[in-house]
Amino acid sequence: MHPSASALCFLLRKTSPLIPTYHYFKEEDLQSLKMLEYIVRNQKWQKDGRTASFGYSETSPRSIQVPPVAAEQMLGRLTACRQVFIQSSTRNQLVPFMVKEEFPGTFDMQQTDNDYIISYSAVSYPPKRISLTSYYIWNDRLYKIDPEADRDIVLLFHMLMDTPQGRLPLSSEEVGQVYKQIVAPLEQTEKLEMTESIRASIEEQPLQAKIYLDKKENGLTADPLFSYGPYSIHAVTEQQTPEDKAILVRDTKQEKEILQFIEEAGFHWNGERLILSREEDIALFFLDILPELKKQADVFMSRAAESTFIPPETLQVEAALDPSMGWLDISFETSDLNEEDVFHLMKALKEKKRYYKTIEGGYVSLTSSWMKNLQDLLQDTPVTEENTENKRMRMPSYKTLLLDDKTRESTGWNASATMEDLIRHIRDPQSFEVELPERLNADLRDYQKLGFQWMKALTAYGFGGILADDMGLGKTLQTLTYILSERQKNPEAPPFLIVAPSSLIYNWEKEAHRFTPDLKIEVIHGTKPQRKKAMGLL
């Protein structure tokens, strides 16, 4: 086998004749030969003009040139074979085919007055890559690299080959930046030689990222610092304090991740500091990026910066009920919002915006579960300046139960006593104290009394309801009991209207005379003119 930097060439030697009765190929040898057969066929097709897949021709009757596209697979199959040899490039002899899984040669690091010099041991006779494969040949031996794990080492090697005399000068800062990716892996595999004085100058400390946020007139500013023990480095200017000649090992991967958050937010360098100017960018930074940034770095905010973002959880809300008027008032007990803010905040929620900017320049997130709950309450409720007066939002009282469902586990919500009473009376009608009406000719069962109490509680708070139960459990009796109670409470009130199927009209009349004889009953039925005439006599 003749490996070179561009291709593989196989030389087939003449041996004793092949007798199929006595001779056979081992499986690993057979697979390699089949691969060579495939390559030869492609070369013959090329020669015959049938295809243009490979641009190779036969060099001699006894040699086969492997194209780059097949070289990796061919070398992989040969590693399983025993009788494979390499034609030495320096001696006229064959060398056994052997593969070492490492990068060939070693590197050296030396210190000069101001810099560090990294060089390669065999710059005069460097290893050569075989075609497009992950194999290198050096000193008549093959080396196989891991394209992913050895990527940075290979990159360093090619950089050195492109420099004069194969020497790469680096400052102490530059060595620190590439230490984890290149220097440390070379040391671990014993591929790097350095003096003890260089080793003593290496400072390896965990990264502690710190982001300082402040609010200026023209926007939000950020000052990112990367701290390693007693050393601090500004993320943009790369200014290091204290300054000395130590090699500070840096976690460039985590540094890049942190800087990526800042870049995604839209911060730009104005010559003095990083700044974020656009209103939408500032809002989205607080909403989306800052929570993730806090997982990677310690974030410190000035009072001005803290006031820029108003967490919805800090907005204390008082929910009060006015049963006589049928209103539920939601008031914001906070100095962060004024009366005009409440109106615009509710409109922003109604329009399903992600944030609201207050009159004073603060940002309120409208995407939290707290705000989503408030958004659900606003369905079917118009937002006007009239119903948002005095820093409160006024909505129908029937939304009290929905409010309770949405905020039961939330902090920051405070319910008034009247609201708590409504919730308790509707959810537990037995707690609503009311006497059965006088002159009721029936003994109600416990569940029938509960149904009566529930209807009375609904009436007390201005609600309607549906009494649903199986047939024969006394819905008619419960309803008549409720009507009798309301009539005794307010004799001058308009009449009650019971709408029933024709087949049940007279049953209702019979039951009313039986259980509530004090009620005046009028049956309206017949044709439309007849019903209209009867209605006029009421």
Provide structural commentary.
With 538 residues, this protein is of the alpha+beta class. It folds into 5 domains: 96 residues, no CATH class; 94 residues, no CATH class; 104 residues; 118 residues, no CATH class; 108 residues, Rossmann fold (3-Layer(aba) Sandwich). Helices cover 36% and strands 21% of the residues. It is built from 16 helices and 29 strands. Strands 15, 16, 17, 18, 20, 21 and 22 form a 7-stranded mixed beta sheet that branches. A hairpin with a 5-residue loop joins β17 and β18. α6 packs antiparallel against α7. The longest helix is centred in the N-terminal third of the chain and has 22 residues. The chain is elongated and about 130 Å long. The termini are far apart.
What is the topological layout?
Layout (H helix, E strand, L loop, with lengths): L1 E2 L4 E4 L15 H22 L14 E4 L1 H11 L6 E3 L6 E3 L2 E2 L6 E5 L4 E5 L7 E2 L5 E4 L2 E4 L6 H11 L5 E4 L1 H17 L3 E2 L2 H5 L1 E3 L2 E10 L2 E10 L2 E4 L5 E2 L5 E3 L2 H14 L2 E2 L4 E3 L2 H18 L1 E4 L1 H4 L2 E2 L5 E7 L4 E7 L5 H12 L4 E3 L5 E3 L3 H9 L14 E5 L3 H8 L5 E3 L1 H11 L18 H15 L14 H15 L12 H14 L12 H9 L2
Parallel strand pairs: 6-11, 7-13, 14-19, 15-22, 23-27, 24-29
Antiparallel strand pairs: 1-2, 2-3, 4-5, 7-8, 8-12, 9-10, 10-11, 15-16, 16-17, 16-21, 17-18, 20-21, 24-25, 25-28, 26-27
